[in-house]
Every structure is written in C-alpha cells, then in structure tokens.
C-alpha cells in the first residue's frame, strides 16, 4: 500500500504501522503503554501528556477515531478502561482498528470477559505478553485474538524468569529460537 499526501508526494510503504498502544483508567492515568517510534513522543513525560490530552478528548466522545498531534488514534472503552492504538496521520484506520480489536478481544479473553481495572492489574503480566504478541517494534505480528491468547497463555505458564537457573533460561531461549525457525 502506497500512501499519498495532499500535495501528491508519495510515502514509502512500511511495516511499521503502529506508533503506540495504551490502556488508560477512567481518570486518564496510564495502566499500560508501549510506544514503538522514538521520533514520536520520545520521553515518558511527553507520552503521559499526550495520553492525558487523548483521554480528555475521547472519554466522553461517541466516535472511535480521532486525529491528535499528528497521530491517528482509534479507541474503545469498557467500564473503567480505555484502549487506544495510535498510528501515523496517513495510516489506514481499518488496519489500526483491527489491531485495537485484537488487543481488546485478547484482553477480554485473558481476563475471562471481566475487563475492568482490578482484574487487568491482577493479570498485568498476561496482558503485557498479549501486547508483545500483537505488535513488535510497530510491526503488526498478529490480529487473531485466539492465537494471541494461546501464545500469551503459554508464556505465562512458564516458570518466572527470576526463579530459573541460567541453564533453564538458555534452554528456553534455544527452544524458542528452534520453534521460530521451524515456522
């Protein structure tokens, strides 16, 4: 897909579609966030200011998309959480929406349909893994909630890294590398 600007110049196609994903509480505070482009909102202070502004513009709105500070933002709310996916201003909203749906549905399945702040905090490790299964460095890896949850659940059943020996960590890394090469 080649994007054009109003002036007609072309943007180079890229796999780096997602600029960031975040989940905010019903006060606009960050619960979980990942930003993938260091040129866009490079510091935590700038990210949190952007998130506050984003929340203020969207928490009462009925829309599902907003252009803010040069970013296309799609969002969804549920009870006391707000889910956001951000892309560049020229990005396809439908692609961003599919990432948002994957994020929301994956979290919903992981939390057994009880998507609220307390349950999310209690299962933050699994939700963080879902973030990583959906997107890596801005590249969309998967948008199927069932496969995302399957991989995130497998990874959360592992022995915590702090409780593993060096040999176990190396063996686990070897196994992951082997399986990724066999795909």
TrEMBL record:
<keyword id="KW-0333">Golgi apparatus</keyword>
<dbReference type="GO" id="GO:0006890">
    <property type="term" value="P:retrograde vesicle-mediated transport, Golgi to endoplasmic reticulum"/>
</dbReference>
<protein>
    <recommendedName>
        <fullName>Coatomer subunit zeta</fullName>
    </recommendedName>
</protein>
<keyword id="KW-0472">Membrane</keyword>
<comment type="function">
    <text>The coatomer is a cytosolic protein complex that binds to dilysine motifs and reversibly associates with Golgi non-clathrin-coated vesicles, which further mediate biosynthetic protein transport from the ER, via the Golgi up to the trans Golgi network. Coatomer complex is required for budding from Golgi membranes, and is essential for the retrograde Golgi-to-ER transport of dilysine-tagged proteins. The zeta subunit may be involved in regulating the coat assembly and, hence, the rate of biosynthetic protein transport due to its association-dissociation properties with the coatomer complex.</text>
</comment>
<dbReference type="GO" id="GO:0006891">
    <property type="term" value="P:intra-Golgi vesicle-mediated transport"/>
</dbReference>
<keyword id="KW-0813">Transport</keyword>
<keyword id="KW-0653">Protein transport</keyword>
<dbReference type="InterPro" id="IPR039652">
    <property type="entry name" value="Coatomer_zeta"/>
</dbReference>
<dbReference type="GO" id="GO:0030126">
    <property type="term" value="C:COPI vesicle coat"/>
</dbReference>
<comment type="subunit">
    <text>Oligomeric complex that consists of at least the alpha, beta, beta', gamma, delta, epsilon and zeta subunits.</text>
</comment>
<dbReference type="InterPro" id="IPR011012">
    <property type="entry name" value="Longin-like_dom_sf"/>
</dbReference>
<keyword id="KW-0968">Cytoplasmic vesicle</keyword>
<dbReference type="GO" id="GO:0006886">
    <property type="term" value="P:intracellular protein transport"/>
</dbReference>
<comment type="similarity">
    <text>Belongs to the adaptor complexes small subunit family.</text>
</comment>
<feature type="domain" description="AP complex mu/sigma subunit">
    <location>
        <begin position="18"/>
        <end position="156"/>
    </location>
</feature>
<keyword id="KW-0963">Cytoplasm</keyword>
<dbReference type="GO" id="GO:0000139">
    <property type="term" value="C:Golgi membrane"/>
</dbReference>
<dbReference type="Pfam" id="PF01217">
    <property type="entry name" value="Clat_adaptor_s"/>
</dbReference>
<keyword id="KW-0931">ER-Golgi transport</keyword>
<dbReference type="InterPro" id="IPR022775">
    <property type="entry name" value="AP_mu_sigma_su"/>
</dbReference>
């Amino acid at each position: 897909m080649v994007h054009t600007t109003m002036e007609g110049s072309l943007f180079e196609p890229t796999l780096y579609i997602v600029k960031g994903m975040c989940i905010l509480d019903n006060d606009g505070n960050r619960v979980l966030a990942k930003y993938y482009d260091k040129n866009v909102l490079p510091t935590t202070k700038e990210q949190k200011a952007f998130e506050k502004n984003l929340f203020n513009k969207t928490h009462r709105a009925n829309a599902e998309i907003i252009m803010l500070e040069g970013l296309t933002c799609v969002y969804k709310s549920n009870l006391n959480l707000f889910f956001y996916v951000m892309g560049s201003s020229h990005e396809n909203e439908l692609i961003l929406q599919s990432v948002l749906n994957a994020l929301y549905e994956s979290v919903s399945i992981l939390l057994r349909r009880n998507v609220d702040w307390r349950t999310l905090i209690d299962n933050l490790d699994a939700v963080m893994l879902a973030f990583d299964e959906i997107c890596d460095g801005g590249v969309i890896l998967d948008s199927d909630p069932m496969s995302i949850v399957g991989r995130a659940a497998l990874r959360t059943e592992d022995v915590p890294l702090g409780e593993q020996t060096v040999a176990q960590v190396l063996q686990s890394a070897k196994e992951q590398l082997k399986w990724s090469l066999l795909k």
